[in-house]
Amino acid sequence: MTIREHFEQMNARYKFLCVAVAAIVACTWQWLFPKTNILVGALLVAAVLLGFTLPISYLMFRCPRCGGSYQRMSKRQPGRDLRMYWDKWTECPDCKLSFDAPWSKPHEAGK
Length: 111
Ligand SMILES: [Zn+2]
Known about the structure:
The protein is mainly α.
């Protein structure tokens, strides 16, 4: 498996996680407070997604070699390109690790 394929798989799982978290929060909210405005529930779901799943994406999508966060690297790039990192780049902007290189677990020690 290449690094690009690995991240595509992670992205599919991440989207599933977001939908699952949103559904659980929405259902729990409706069950606990059935009379509140639906907008309040929608805002709560948005807040949970921002506060809970965004930090996870920060941890999930990091370079396996230099450990850099792609989100942070993306913010340094000029313009707004909303494609996924492995679609707009062919390599890590920091350490030039190619996304076509085989995926191997990040080295836990040292970094
Ligand atoms: Zn890197």
